[in-house]
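Researcher: Quick sanity check before group meeting.
Model: Go ahead. Protein one:
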Amino acid sequence: MESIFHEKQEGSLCAQHCLNNLLQGEYFSPVELSSIAHQLDEEERMRMAEGGVTSEDYRTFLQQPSGNMDDSGFFSIQVISNALKVWGLELILFNSPEYQRLRIDPINERSFICNYKEHWFTVRKLGKQWFNLNSLLTGPELISDTYLALFLAQLQQEGYSIFVVKGDLPDCEADQLLQMVRVQQMHRPKLIGEELAQLKEQRVQKTDLEHVLEAHDGSGMLDADEEDLQRALALSRQEIDLEDEEADLRRAIQLSMQGTSRNICQDSPQTSGTHLTSEELRKRREAYFEKQQQQQQDPPGHPCEKPNTSSGALDSDLGDAMSEEDMLQAAVTMSLETVRSNFKTEGKK
């Protein structure tokens, strides 16, 4: 439907748009229609002057504004009718008794001009199809043959005056093209006001989206991405904390071992003139436990197969064993105190 001429509404120039959409071209301008309106005003003035220029009716007529045009761009049916006479066209009222007696099917006509209050628009047949060329629409509206009569009846119920255009319309490219092909319309055109409201709503939605993006520092990051980032940072901090705890534990154990070895060497009783090392202490402890196990295996009151020893020797062995046990207990106690002391020192740091 690109070949169809369709003027959209500008100001109140609907009469101009109606005529140009009917003739399918820029045939009339506001200046030309104003000239026709002034000519009609002058003809009316001359008729009123015939009754006397001093009459009350003539004075009243001169004081009244023009009935054929106004400053907004409105033009009367007389202006439109005179403009069409230039092209040999005339207007007949659709619901007049004279036309209704003809019983003409609307689809057999070529065009209609519709008027409600101060708005004019054209319904015209191009090729083999009808189109609503209302300047308030965003584009031509396809009307089927079966819907045409219903459409005109609906306009009449809404208060429109409908005029049938009689005569041969000038040739146009759209009419020639649509004689060969038929068009289909997937979406009906909207009123210009509806389209502007939709565009305004789209601009508002776009502005709201920009505000949302600005609230996210322009990154447009989704909530899911933010949660993933926060989760990754938390895991990273946990790993760092775990590594720090492991390092602290290894350092505490090392300090404990150093302090335990130093305290044992300094404070334990001397044997054979040398200090006990941790290895020697371990061996003494193992020997002590072996003796304890042997004594538990030998039942009381039965002679043992071990070589006889004197009571002095037995007391000496028992004394040695008790001495080793005391030393082990002392070593463990010192080790625990050293660990506590080291943790307190680290905590103060």
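Researcher: Fine. The other one?
Model: Protein two, sequence then structure:
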Amino acid sequence: MGRGEGAEEKRKERKQQRRLQRQNHPDEEGGEGQNVRKRPRREVTPSSLRLVVDCSFDNLMLIKDVRKLHKQIQRCYAENRRALHPVQLYLTSLGGQLKQSMDEKDKGWVNWKDISIKTEHYSEVVPKEELVYLTSDSPKVLEELDQKKAYVIGGLVDHNHHKGITFEKAKELGIDHAQLPLSSFVKMNSRKVLAVNHVFEIILAYLEKGSWQEAFFTVLPQRKGAVAVDEDGASAQERDEEESDSDLDTPDKTEKTA
């Protein structure tokens, strides 16, 4: 056996010894650290809650907005797949420009799992008495989620051109409606109409955390300028400004009484 071959054999033997040592003494030589680094997989518990994306507004949108909706739906699907409490996801009234966009840019959607994709309207898929349309124009505020209900999210981008349309549709069909309790917990710089995936992700976060406020601040993008609201309905920023104004007033009052 040549010198090179002998050295190679010794390296293999040392490597085998180290492997056996790790197997027999996992707490030594960084074995424990290796186990810690392997984060335990969280136990997934599916929710019986149904979330329906209503895709019946296809003819009201430009193709660029349809493509935005397509991306938002992709995000919903991806987030639901990795959620701790995945919901029963439905797409209803799928057709037109949206289906064309999905066929062209995401052919794999036909193989999506754990989702019900329907060409029918949601009112033909779920009994009306179980439906709740989530719309920011509703006077009702959603406080808790009812696992027996199916919550509908309007698949519409560019609400400014069709303000209040989802609320009107819900009233026309005679189904229940509600808005997320956004104003109770968050003060927004922009209008409180949220993207489809934001509403979806907020509900997933609420199912996991059990807190609307935590859910809102986990999901809402910073560009919307979301700040927390306290029990009196004022934002933390407003409270700080009031205290600053109060401090500024104090010297003047002192001078007048002196």
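Researcher: One line on it for the slide.
Model: Strands lie at 50-54, 88-92, 115-117, 131-134, 150-154, 176-178, 186-187, 227-228.
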